[in-house]
Specification:
This protein is α/β, with parallel strands linked by helices and 278 residues long. Helices cover 16% and strands 25% of the residues. The longest helix has 16 residues, at 202-217.
Length: 278
């Protein structure tokens, strides 16, 4: 194990012997660090915190600090970071706010400089957060989604799988899987490049494109939209999109951007009573 002599390591910490720790790093409390990790200079880790094998934490990142939540009263909670993640300079990841809760980061995620992940967020595998992007509490981000630079996501929002959030984006409602937004958080089309890079088949890509038109170009209401999608989708990707649309939501679904084809509205725009934020 390579630990710089200026680093401060809590006796409670469990650190794999293949991990290296840079100067002036502080590891406080019940922190578990897996094999082949690297902590650069000035990193601060607060337990309970688990970091999976192969993860790199760059200078001045802070992981596991208490949530920025006025309701937090010191409850036991934690952060879990997956394997082979890249956490760049100045990233902050706060632990859960409610008792026993977890802020969870999947495998192979990349969080670029000064990204922030609030309490109780859940990032699935291979999420990318570009520099300065912000997630409020309880945000769920699907696999391979990209949150572009300086975008801000409201608490309780769901960001779907393989979606692309615009730089400087203002995201206050759910973004379905596979779609792209503009800076106002409105949908502008299918994330075609992301789907190709993600290995989606041509049949899946065509089905997702057709589903976008049903949701945002047909003029159907919610019930009509869901019925049309149930008849349309045959692929696994289409099934996951439909499941996202029918799942419980606290924020409602984002609308489409204005164009010559459509006014900025969505059949899911107004949440049902069970979807409203308390």
């Amino acid at each position: 194990m390579s630990i710089h002599p200026t680093a401060i390591i809590d006796p409670q910490a469990k650190i794999d012997p293949t991990t290296s720790i840079g100067p002036y790093t502080i590891v406080q409390g019940a922190v578990e660090i897996g094999a082949r990790c690297h902590l650069a200079a000035g990193v601060i880790l607060y337990g309970p915190l688990t970091i999976g094998a192969g993860t790199q934490v760059h200078a001045h990142a802070v992981l596991g600090d208490i949530p920025q939540d006025r309701a937090f009263k010191g409850e036991d909670s934690s952060v879990v970071v997956g394997e082979d993640c890249i956490i760049r300079e100045g990233v902050t990841i706060h632990r859960g706010s409610s008792p026993g809760s977890v802020t969870r980061i999947g495998d192979r995620c990349m969080m670029m400089s000064n990204a922030h992940i609030g309490h109780n967020c859940h990032l699935e595998d291979e999420v990318t957060m570009i520099s300065g992007s912000l997630l409020g509490g309880y945000v769920h981000v699907g696999r391979r989604a990209v949150i572009s630079g300086n975008a801000a996501v409201h608490q309780f929002v769901r960001i779907g799988e393989a979606s692309m959030i615009s730089g400087l984006g203002k995201i206050v409602q759910d973004i379905p899987p596979f779609f792209m937004t503009d800076q106002e958080g409105a949908l502008v089309g299918v994330n075609r490049v992301g789907l190709v890079r993600g290995g989606f088949t041509s049949k899946e890509r065509e089905e997702i494109k057709a589903a976008y038109k049903v949701i945002y170009r047909s003029g159907f209401d919610r019930a009509e939209t869901l019925r049309a999608l149930e008849q349309l989708v045959t692929t696994d990707a289409g099934g996951r999109l439909l499941a996202f649309l029918t799942a419980e939501s606290k924020r409602g679904l984002a609308a489409a951007a204005y164009s010559q084809f459509s006014r900025p509205t969505s059949p899911f725009e107004k949440p049902t009573p069970s979807e409203k934020t308390g």
